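Hello,

I think I submitted the 2-acetamido-2-deoxy-beta-D-glucopyranose job twice by accident. Can you confirm which output corresponds to this input? Input:
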Amino acid sequence: MNVLLCGALLIVWVPLSESACYMFPDHKEKQPIGSAKASDCIDPHDKSEHLTGTTWINSMCQTCSCVQCKTLCCDRVLLPRGYSEDCVATFNRKKCRYTVHQKENLSAQCKTQYYVGK
Ligand SMILES: *[C@@H]1O[C@H](CO)[C@@H](O)[C@H](O)[C@H]1NC(C)=O
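Support: Only one job matched these inputs. Its output is below.
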């Protein structure tokens, strides 16, 4: 049942020209037909397993969806722009975002004018 569902429809529903998204191939193709495995997609970084129709955030701060057994991941990290040259941006892995501090004093936050998508 699951295998049929995976092979039948290949609908690309997200414009892949958006550079921040990546499509990963159907991992089921490498599995024998009738394999007992219940998952449809495997996260390319975490190797966690997901079913068609689900969305998750992985350890690389990407929003991933399992669509027709293909994994689609989009970067959701925004890059700070327009901050002073005395400042430095550091990535906070837990929050999946950058914070900007003064180079001289890391506890002083800097103003960021805007953020851009990667
Ligand atoms: C660093 O910045 C914090 C917050 O602005 C400020 O309270 C502190 O006095 C600064 N420390 C130094 C060494 O400048």
